[in-house]
Amino acid sequence: MKRPLAGLALGFMLQPLMALASSQPSTHHFTLDNGLKVIVHEDHRAAVVHSQLWYRVGSNYEPSGQSGLSHALEHMVFKGSSKLCPAESDHIFQSLGATDNAATQNDATVFFQTLPPHALAVALEVMADQMSTAHLSAAHWEGEREVIKSERSESIDNDPHQRALELPRRLAFPSSAAGSPVIGWMHDLDRMHIDELKDWYQRWYAPNNATLVIVGDIDAEQVKTLATRYFGPIARRKLPAIKRPIELTAPGERIITQYMAHQIPSLSMAFNVPSLTTQTDPRQAPALELLSELLGGGDSSELKSRLWRGEELLISVGTHYNGISRGDELFSIVATLNLENLKPLDEVQARIWAVIESLKHAPPTRSDLERARTRIIAQQVFTRDDLQSLALYLGELDIAGLSPAQDEERMQILKAITPQDIQHAARTFLTRDRLTISHVLPKETRHE
């Protein structure tokens, strides 16, 4: 009798979560005459506003030999413009009780602030000036290049975990720039010239290549007036032709072994898979999302219950898949071995394969699937309730070429995914000809 009661309880939990997840936020969309897209979500619960300016350019856009251009340009935009001295925007926002920052991703560069509503006009004026009149001087670039190289050394080269993931990602994307690090390869940073940055700025920093996202205690008409005042005079520009980063469907199994000092043995397995924008069947990405949660999401997931708590082969294991992407994606499994029950990496990898194969031969139980579905829907609800997370969500959707309505369709499909859909996704996508394997071992175990 326990299983029916558990299923009944899950049903009661899902009903309010699904109802909340299906309710669309009251979000306003408009586009200026110069092509700048604006998304405004009004929420008057607290006197705070999150403003974000998204440019459709990131590391996936960069040609060979010029990795890191988008991230370097993000740094240089803060080095002065017609109205601002270098780093002056930081001081302005601090004086207003606000914070500002920026980040570069594979498909986007985003500048963002958290500020009181009365300061929004200042944020828009600053970002409009940076969009149109950034100085990009050679003298500032020479110093900022060293800052970026130091950032790369600290965040990747001196971080065994991050360094272990960098080369396998390059192998996993053999036919596109998606495998290049966002911060760039060190040798590309060494030879990057200010003229390349100026050219990149002229290509991509245009109003018709950007989306302004405003979330919080603000009126949509007020945002429209301010956006028109500060961004409206900036002329649209002809943009380069862009294509989605599409990967080889089945590049063949690839494997790399890396040796790193004082590193606990670990392994990763990354499969080339489609995203919401590249799937050929609308059930593929939602099924992969649920498959990721079933395999390595919560503590009751297959890999964690069997290999972490059960056999105690691992001290950590997790999966990752994000279907909200402009191009093809990776379905990743990352595991760190337990030194107190140390087994060869090949043996642990075989055990992970056994768990995957079990889902191919027998679909998950409905109760396991419902638990995974509940966790995903709950996370969606929490994301949309936090204003900053909601702003990021709206921006990421737009960058991927998706709308909230399309994402709601994804959620409706996710609710209808069956155990057989999960089994089909595992059989179709978790295959050796889509796989990149990385083994990481302590440097002292290497035999020259």
Automatic annotation (TrEMBL):
Q: Which residues form the signal peptide?
A: 1-21
The record's similarity note reads: Belongs to the peptidase M16 family.
- Keyword Zinc applies: yes
InterPro entries referenced in this protein's UniProt entry, alphabetically: Metalloenz_LuxS/M16, Pept_M16_N, Peptidase_M16, Peptidase_M16_C
Keywords of this entry: Hydrolase, Metalloprotease, Protease, Signal, Zinc
Q: Name one GO molecular function term.
A: metal ion binding
Designated name of the protein:
Peptidase M16
- Asked if the keyword Hydrolase belongs to this entry, the reply reads yes
**Ranges for domain Peptidase M16 N-terminal:** 38-164
A single Gene Ontology biological process assigned to it is:
proteolysis
Residues annotated as domain Peptidase M16 C-terminal? 194-374
Q: Which Gene3D superfamilies match?
A: Metalloenzyme, LuxS/M16 peptidase-like (3.30.830.10)
Organism (species): Pseudomonas fragi
